[in-house]
Amino acid sequence: MDLDAALSPVLEALVPHALSDVSLRSLLRELSLLLRSPAKSSAHLQTILQVYKDQLPSTIENNASWQKLENLLLPLCSLKKNDDITKYLSVFQSMLSPGLPSPDGRNQRYSYQGPNRNLNSPFNPTISPNRAHSVYSESFENFDRYSDKRSLPSVYKDNRTINNTITLRELSDQYYRNMVPQDVMLRYAAYTLVATTSDMFPMDFNVIQIPSNIPNSDSAMLHLIFEAGLLYQSLNLIVNQHKSSNISPIKKALIIHLSKELRKYTAFINNLTISNNLTSLKALYIELFEYVSVLRIYFQFMEHFEATSGDMYLSEFHSWKSHGDLLVSRVATELFDCLLSLYFEYLFNWLVAAKVESTFNDFFIKVQDNHDEKINIIPVTLISEKLPHFLDGEMGNKIYIIGKTYIFLTKYCKELEKSNEFAKKYSVIYSNLLHNGISNELFNTINQQYDEILQITHTLLCEKFHYKNMLYALKDFLLMGKSDLIEILTKKAIDLLMSPATTIQGYRLTSSLQEAVQQSSINHWINQTDKNFIINGLDARVLDMGHGSVGWDIFTLDYNMEPPLSLVLNVNREGGKKEYLRIFNFLWRFKKNAYFFNDEMLRSNELLKMLSKIRVGNPLAKDILTKLSKFCILRSKLHQFNSMMESYCLNFIIEKEFNTLESKLNSTENDIILLGNKFSESDTTTPIQKPMKDILHLTVDSERNNNGNQVIRRTNSKTLLNIDELDNAHNTFLHSVRSHKLLLANSDSNIGTYSGNPYPISLMIIMETVFKFIEFYSKLNDISEKVLIQLNLADTGNLGDLLTQFTSASLSTVQEYKRFNHQLYVFCKDLKSDDEDDLRVLSRMLR
């Protein structure tokens, strides 16, 4: 037998009953440790017992009990083996059996004393009959500790002194006589379930008081039942707070639906109370179980009512519709269907009339109220975060574009008749779809409406507002696609370009521009079917560059574009980046240098022709002729660099990106291929057709032509670009041009490896050097003209000074050429070390 098991009954019998169970267990542990210790002593034993003696009053009975325990345990301090100690305690334990003498020598019988020993104290079967009773057992350890004691009466079942006629009910009823009956609890619980306080269950907000004279089992059941009352109280408070507040229609509908559900719950409780079918708290809980779950779900949804918008509720309910719990799914479906009709009203108003009114920020499209009319944009915004879960991003964008395009057609294109017909047609269709809810038919209708409004817009832009022709015109006007316009304009306005900025008059620039248009290759834009709609937007103006500038520095071409084209073509939009202006000013540097190169070349050719006539017999004329010829070679090299850079920018940057833009705009046009002895109509010189990368997006129609060859017509199935995509495609074109490494100054990706400067900065430095070379070269031509005049007049008086000036200008010109040559060498090394193939090719071209 274990030492603790042998010691425990002894302590139960000898320790005074007034000692608490906790202290008794503590005493058992300390004595067990002492008896197991090899260093145990009587002094140590007396010390332990004294600690627990002090916990009880010093009475004759208590002192006698402690003395008996000490007399019993003192001999054990001399025993070394635990087995001997256990046997000793076992022997003493057997003495506690009936008929054996007690430790104090008196012959007593052990008798079982049941709960009737103290009728006023609550009965607890886990407490030993020999111990003081407590209201509750302190832990399940009591069952093990007292199991032997509880079994002692059954050992002596033949003992006739034990009363076996007392029933368990008779033993327990006396402890429950002060407890509240369940029928009384049921009567008062009905009030609590509808959040009404009562005498038995006083109720405050989120607090219900349960009386102390209710058994633990009933109290636990009431905790479960009263959860419905607390949930009802919280939900009813939310309804009362917001039923008259200024909230969105969707949230108002949610409050109304919740109010109806709470009224149903109240009616259910009333009917349950009147029926008198409830006999116990368990039966009440079974009846309430589903309502408790439903109220939990509503409380979960309504817990953050103020911080949750109507569209968030709609998305949340849509997600919970597919919940695995059928009850959750049913409640979420009811709420979703309740709110969906209001959201459909927002949706259909936008689709047929582009109206977003009284949505309280519950819709994913927002109209800007304080819109600046100077900024040419349609003041509507798609908020992708507010898209409900039943609409994916693509469908939400189509809905947004439909309404936005409707605004574009009515407000900016003034197509009221077409727009009204379009709106009436789809208003009827959507009104018939209201009862279907979220369905494929709804999405198919939105797709059909989207395709139709894009077709209307595309036809209108191209036929009435000449959209595609405008793109070509912008490239020809502002991006120098037709370079002869700039050359003619420069000749016409050279006096203005050479004048100080403060003296330039705008009307004279406009007059020069009109003459240049009429004499250049863009004169075909005049008197066309568009009634000069395109050409009339072209304008010339000067920039505000400050004091000291000349016409060359401040001149620029501009284009005045009005809505609706200004909404899809960002030319110089208010608040925009004015990319066309930046690109034009960059190319204008090449045109400026080219003009002076051509002008000085003509002068040089004329001088060389005149000098060659008088060089015979005139060493001075021959010397100047030789030097000018050499300088002409240097000039041609710089001119060649200027022309190559201009050509590269026009053809490999602007034209390349413009072709990409064209391919986006023409993605719906048919491609025709003839199978037989002929090849593609688009490229009759190519014997082998290149594979089509977008073959998966094509539909194929086959037919026979007049020659019997099979014709396969491949039509791209992509839809037309909407107004946002048109605007983005054009902006992407401008951005791609401006972000080229040769044009983008503020970037870390185009820093030269050897120069340490960005490519545009290096290029600007070279262009400045080229212009200085032209200035010194022009001075050489001026001096040479004077020398030629002196030679023709046979006047040698000023030739010395002229020759000195010619020599000085020659040295400066050579110095600028050397500087250019070095700068070009470093620039080419930078380009050669770049990771782009096009720039490496450019470096070889420039060298």
Put simply, the count of helices is 28
Number of strands: 9
> What is the distance, rounded to the nearest whole angstrom, between the alpha carbons of the first and last residues?
107 Å
Oligomer: single chain
How confident is the prediction overall: mean pLDDT? 82
Low-confidence parts, pLDDT < 50 over ≥5 residues?
98-162, 669-690, 692-702, 710-717
By secondary-structure content and strand pairing, the structural class works out as: mainly alpha
Radius of gyration: 52 Å
- Helical residue percent band: 55-70%
Structure characterization notes:
The chain has 28 helices and 9 strands. A 3-stranded antiparallel β-sheet has the order 7-9-8, with no helix packed on it. The chain has a two-stranded antiparallel ribbon with strand order 1-2. A two-stranded antiparallel ribbon has the order 3-4. The radius of gyration is 52 Å and the shape is elongated. A hairpin with a 5-residue loop joins strand 8 (698-704) and strand 9 (710-716). With 847 residues, the protein is mostly helical. One of its GO terms (cellular component) is outer plaque of spindle pole body. Residues 470-843 form the Gamma tubulin complex component C-terminal domain.
How are the SSEs placed, and which strands pair?
Blueprint: H1 3-14, H2 21-36, H3 42-53, H4 60-73, H5 82-94, H6 141-155, H7 168-176, H8 182-193, E1 203-204, E2 207-208, H9 216-242, H10 249-275, H11 281-302, H12 310-320, H13 326-353, E3 365-367, E4 380-382, H14 393-412, H15 416-433, H16 440-463, H17 467-478, H18 483-492, H19 494-498, H20 506-519, E5 538-542, H21 551-554, E6 555-559, H22 565-568, H23 579-614, H24 619-665, E7 670-675, E8 698-704, E9 710-716, H25 723-738, H26 759-793, H27 799-832, H28 837-846
Antiparallel strand pairs: 1-2, 3-4, 5-6, 7-9, 8-9
Helix pairs in contact: 1-2, 1-5, 2-3, 3-4, 8-9, 9-10, 9-11, 10-13, 12-13, 13-14, 13-15, 14-16, 15-16, 18-20, 23-24, 23-25, 23-26, 24-25, 24-26, 24-28, 26-27, 27-28
Main location: cytoplasm
GO molecular function: gamma-tubulin binding; microtubule minus-end binding
Domain Gamma tubulin complex component C-terminal: 470-843
